[in-house]
Amino acid sequence: MRSSLRHAPKAFRTARPVACGAIGAPWLQHTRRQPPSRKLSTTTPTYHNPSSPTSSSVNETEISHFSALASSWWDPHGPSRPLHLMNPLRHDFIQACLSAPSTTSPTTPQPDPNALRYLDVGCGGGIFAESAARLPTTASVTAIDPSPTILTVARAHAKRDPSLGGGKLTYLSETIESLALPAAPADRFDVVSVFEVVEHVDYPAAFLDRVGEFVRPGGWLVLSTIARTWTSWLTTNLVAEDILGVVPKGTHDWYKYINEEELRAHFAGKGGVWGTPRAMGVVFVPGFGWKEVRGSEKIGNYFLGVQRVG
Amino acid sequence: MNTAIRRRSAYVCRSCTQSLQRQLRRTYASATAQPDIYDVVCVGGGPAGLSLLTALRANPVTAHLRIALVEAQDLAKTKSWKLPPNKFSNRCSSLTPSSASFLDQIGAWSHLERDRVQAYQEMQVWDGVTGARIEFDWAPGAAPAAGTTIAYMNENLNLTSGLLKRIEELGGVSVFDNAKVEKIAYGEETEDVDLREWPVVHLSGGKQLSARLLVGADGANSPVRSFAGIEARGWDYNRHGVVATLEMEGEGWGGEHLKTAYQRFLPTGPVAMLPLPGNHCTLVWSTTPTNASRLKSLSAKDFIATVNAAFRLSPTDLEYMHTQESGQAEEYSWRLEHTPLDYRTIPQTAVGVQEGTVASFPLKLRHADTYIAERVALVGDAAHTIHPLAGQGLNQGQGDVQSLAKAIEYAVGHGQDIGVTMALEPYASERYAANHLLLGVCDKLHKLYSVGSGPLVPLRSVGLNAVNALGPLKSFFMNQAAGNGIKVF
């Protein structure tokens, strides 16, 4: 595994020179010179884009890419179909996390399983946010995305379902950095979801640190992303985007993918704030949909959930 | 599934509906009635529609959906349906053990009048032209653990009445019966909600029902299917199914506990004698429209004679009897004397026909292009109409309902909108191919056995005889018929 990965960057440089060059993150340039063993930086990077005054995890190229996809976000046969198909598995994974034995201290109050409060970071058109809000066990869903274009789509779509009215689902045009952090830890969120987002941000370590602050003690940070392996390059970049075209071209930058062990190391390095992560690997089977495959978290798409214990 | 998901509030929040209802009351005079919002609006209160609603209400995951049922007939009459023990309705269906177990699972089976349901354990199927025969009896040791019942004969009204009783017991279904669907149109956009993709069912009298999911359980000429713009393709067989409730000379050769279903393939179509409780049977005879109208015009005595002839005499004899305006009874009795018979392989003699039960309906094959559209699902006859020769029509509908209820349960448990095609896709993909295969097999069987002479005739006899000789293969077929075998699709 390791030795084959060392050879990877050269091959990918020739395969995707434009995509790599288009993203100017210094952190990423560093990675490009190195074998793709991605250490998640623990310091907040200085912001490099002079047009934006505050520090942000948001990459402008990524925003414009997803804004362009806004109109087709809810088309079940459009480019977001794989995301629609994946959505039920997100709930299965969250259920698995919530029903796992809690690793907090016995005195920590636990989330009410029948009145869960969700924060969905990078909600896009609201595929997950809407579905979470529909569950009878949900008290509220706050969904944020930096793209106002996409939020317009999300709000218009939510309006088509009367059960989503009445304040249960709130969309905010915010980044995780600009979102106000509830002062009392107990007022923070039971479930903070970051689905298919970390592979699109420039400084994932700083991003995850900030996201983690919104998780209440006893709550769960749940994310999904793609491991950086030969297989994932082949399937998500070459086959899905370039050959089959089931995922819009330019959606994924392989260099930004994060491996499961890198995330584990990240959370383990936070001095006992986080419990031991749970992971679930999933594989897309064309014509069928997503399927859980044990061990595939090391290879391609995977979910990772971690409970805030401190 | 986490049990926590199974509780709590309705899918459409009560307050939304209540506020809409308040608006409705307030604006009643101004005649712009606001539609009532439902999660499921089912048009059609037949076996498929009622089973679906029962399944949804009986399942804790889906029990909180707001459900409406729209039916043209008076359901109070159906629910209180009652016949004396020696009278049976002429519209009966065969329920496979898998359909029966589904009905049991949703709590409806116990609401049927069980002494009116007749299980049968054996089948005799033979070719009227060549006499080749397949005997569906259980070889020692070959009977499945689930029991030797191949299927249950049951009056359709017993089923719908039982389902209505179960729905009443469960509660929570808004029933609009004696209701005519005036039109189905799309909703409107207001400041708060955008229902432009929600079907709205307009009932006579002005009532309007908005549907997150509109279920078409409204039969072969489904208005819901037309609304969704889904074509149903197929052909007419130019055959009619003649039904009647018959009184037999006894309870059958095997007595009360070993009942047999009989089916003979005649060149004009199959004729079937299916056991009901006691010495009663139900007749399903597929034949030409001319023969059907002749049969309906006969006196009871001549009708019974022609039915007995259909299981005993040669197709040529029978063809002649169909040309007679009357006198079939005499014709039958002298022709029978010259026909060698193994009486054990044919049904007992019919001795009477229940008055008013001889009826007929045209046979056709139809299959909808798809079962789903945005916020629409079709089940039962709205989706497919099959030749009755295998007695699978109602069972196909039950299979549809079981599958759709499962898809809805999954969607609710995962926060999906149950009306969108993404949520309904599992239903369509699970049922379409299965139904299509069965429609095709029954159609081919009909066509194969409609041939009276020529090279096909000896070939098909080889088929029937060979199957009868091959024990394991036969058990497999029987298990398929009973729905407890290995699923091939």
TrEMBL record, chain A:
Biased composition (Polar residues): 39-60
Recorded catalytic activity of this chain's protein: a 3-demethylubiquinol + S-adenosyl-L-methionine = a ubiquinol + S-adenosyl-L-homocysteine + H(+); a 3-demethylubiquinone + S-adenosyl-L-methionine = a ubiquinone + S-adenosyl-L-homocysteine; a 3,4-dihydroxy-5-(all-trans-polyprenyl)benzoate + S-adenosyl-L-methionine = a 4-hydroxy-3-methoxy-5-(all-trans-polyprenyl)benzoate + S-adenosyl-L-homocysteine + H(+)
Pfam families (UniProt xref): Methyltransf_23
Localization in the cell: Mitochondrion inner membrane
GO molecular function: 3-demethylubiquinol 3-O-methyltransferase activity; metal ion binding; polyprenyldihydroxybenzoate methyltransferase activity
GO cellular component: extrinsic component of mitochondrial inner membrane
Membrane-topology descriptor: Peripheral membrane protein
Binding site for S-adenosyl-L-methionine: R90, G122, D145, F195
GO biological process, any: methylation
Residues that hold Mg(2+) according to the record: E196, E199, H200
Listed EC numbers: 2.1.1.64, 2.1.1.-, 2.1.1.114
Primary location group: mitochondrion
CDD domains listed in its UniProt record: AdoMet_MTases
Similarity remark: Belongs to the class I-like SAM-binding methyltransferase superfamily. UbiG/COQ3 family.
Role description: O-methyltransferase required for two non-consecutive steps during ubiquinone biosynthesis. Catalyzes the 2 O-methylation of 3,4-dihydroxy-5-(all-trans-polyprenyl)benzoic acid into 4-hydroxy-3-methoxy-5-(all-trans-polyprenyl)benzoic acid. Also catalyzes the last step of ubiquinone biosynthesis by mediating methylation of 3-demethylubiquinone into ubiquinone. Also able to mediate the methylation of 3-demethylubiquinol into ubiquinol.
Protein name listed in UniProt: Ubiquinone biosynthesis O-methyltransferase, mitochondrial
Organism: Chaetomium fimeti
TrEMBL record, chain B:
Enzyme Commission number: 1.14.15.45, 1.14.15.46
Membrane-topology descriptor: Peripheral membrane protein
Catalytic activity: a 2-methoxy-6-(all-trans-polyprenyl)phenol + 2 reduced [2Fe-2S]-[ferredoxin] + O2 + 2 H(+) = a 2-methoxy-6-(all-trans-polyprenyl)benzene-1,4-diol + 2 oxidized [2Fe-2S]-[ferredoxin] + H2O; a 4-hydroxy-3-(all-trans-polyprenyl)benzoate + 2 reduced [2Fe-2S]-[ferredoxin] + O2 + 2 H(+) = a 3,4-dihydroxy-5-(all-trans-polyprenyl)benzoate + 2 oxidized [2Fe-2S]-[ferredoxin] + H2O
Domain of life assignment: Eukaryota
Subcellular location(s) per record: Mitochondrion inner membrane
Domain FAD-binding: 38-329, 353-412
Xref: InterPro entries: FAD-bd, FAD/NAD-bd_sf, Ubi_Hdrlase_CS, UbiH/COQ6, UbiH/COQ6_monooxygenase, UbQ_mOase_COQ6
Any Pfam family hit: FAD_binding_3
Annotated keywords: FAD, Flavoprotein, Membrane, Mitochondrion, Mitochondrion inner membrane, Monooxygenase, Oxidoreductase, Ubiquinone biosynthesis
Gene Ontology CC terms, in alphabetical order: extrinsic component of mitochondrial inner membrane
GO molecular function, one term: 2-methoxy-6-polyprenolphenol 4-hydroxylase activity
Main location: mitochondrion
Cofactor: FAD
Pathway where this protein functions: Cofactor biosynthesis; ubiquinone biosynthesis
First-level EC class: oxidoreductase
Function in brief: FAD-dependent monooxygenase required for two non-consecutive steps during ubiquinone biosynthesis. Required for the C5-ring hydroxylation during ubiquinone biosynthesis by catalyzing the hydroxylation of 4-hydroxy-3-(all-trans-polyprenyl)benzoic acid to 3,4-dihydroxy-5-(all-trans-polyprenyl)benzoic acid. Also acts downstream of coq4, for the C1-hydroxylation during ubiquinone biosynthesis by catalyzing the hydroxylation of 2-methoxy-6-(all-trans-polyprenyl)phenol to 2-methoxy-6-(all-trans-polyprenyl)benzene-1,4-diol.
Binding partners and assembly: Component of a multi-subunit COQ enzyme complex, composed of at least COQ3, COQ4, COQ5, COQ6, COQ7 and COQ9.
HAMAP family the record matches: COQ6_monooxygenase
Similarity remark: Belongs to the UbiH/COQ6 family.
Listed name of the protein: Ubiquinone biosynthesis monooxygenase COQ6, mitochondrial
Source species: Chaetomium fimeti
Taxonomic lineage from the root: Eukaryota, Fungi, Dikarya, Ascomycota, Pezizomycotina
